[in-house]
Amino acid sequence: MSTADPFILFGPAHLATLLIIATVGIGVPLLARRTLTTAWQDRAGILLAVLLLIQEGFHIWLLASHYERALDSLLPLHLCGLSVILTAWVLAMRSYRTYEVVYFWAWGGTLQALLTPDLDRGYPSPAFIAFFIGHGLVIVGVLYATLVFRFRPRLVSIFKSLGALLPVVAIVAPINLWLGTNYLFLSTKPQQPSLMDYLGPWPWYILSLAGLALLSSFIYYLPFLVKDLVSANAHCAARRNGAGPYT
């Protein structure tokens, strides 16, 4: 086990790590967009996909071998683990349909995990480093697909994303009962402080999470909605300015 100090929420190490992830998440896609050809952008996307999968495998091995976690509790069935797999698929296959789902999962789930991680040890614990690299790569991957592949969600993507969660919950819930696990935090809240602490007791916090997921999805869609409205207003203004007296 690591002898690192306990994890401090929004402590210096946490804030510095978030800043690094934000810088890389924006910087790498913008650099690729401005300097790479389309073919090399695709190759860079595949490289990111491979890194995501390798890191996820390494993280599972690390927790099992060095932190004595049971393998049945390390399956990629949390939203973040599923987001790793889906983000890798988006990057490797340029899959827009998968992007519609993982865009909201990443911002609604992975970002929340980065802000309130379920960790008990801080930097430089290997678990701390692996956790933030894995979750950070999901954010980098989604931003890469958005800024480099120029993918964007549509309004209907919100409902596709939330709808995709239903069969996942239907599969994971009985797995939790069978293995005694807590995937998707369906059985209990995280041990570390999180937003769920304000959403009521079990099982009511699950219903609260569903409503919060819908609300937050609209918030994450808002930049694209604003862009569409600005573009529509500019188009209408251009038509009015160019209209002749008989139009």
Keywords:
247 residues; globular; 70% helix; mainly alpha
Q: If you compute it from the alpha carbons, what radius of gyration comes out, rounded to the nearest whole angstrom?
A: 20 Å
Low-confidence stretches are none
- The helix fraction, in percent, is over 70%
- N-to-C CA distance: 76 Å
Shape estimate: globular
**DSSP summary, beta strand count:** 0
What is the element string, with H for helices and E for strands?
A: HHHHHHH
Kindly report the average pLDDT value: 90
Number of helical segments with 4 or more residues: 7
Strand content: under 5%
Main sheet attributes: strand count, strand direction, barrel closure:
none
Given the helix and strand composition, which structural class is it?
mainly alpha
Question: Can you walk me through this structure?
Answer:
The protein is mostly helical and 247 residues long. It is built from seven helices and no strands. It has helices spanning 12-35, 38-66, 79-93, 96-115, 126-147, 155-179, 204-242. It is globular and about 70 Å long. It starts with 11 loop residues before the first helix and ends in a 5-residue tail after the last helix.
Q: What is shown here, in short?
A:
The chain has helices at 12-35, 38-66, 79-93, 96-115, 126-147, 155-179, 204-242. It is mainly alpha-helical.
Lay out the secondary structure.
Blueprint: H1 12-35, H2 38-66, H3 79-93, H4 96-115, H5 126-147, H6 155-179, H7 204-242
Helix pairs in contact: 1-5, 2-3, 2-5, 3-4, 3-5, 4-5, 4-6, 6-7
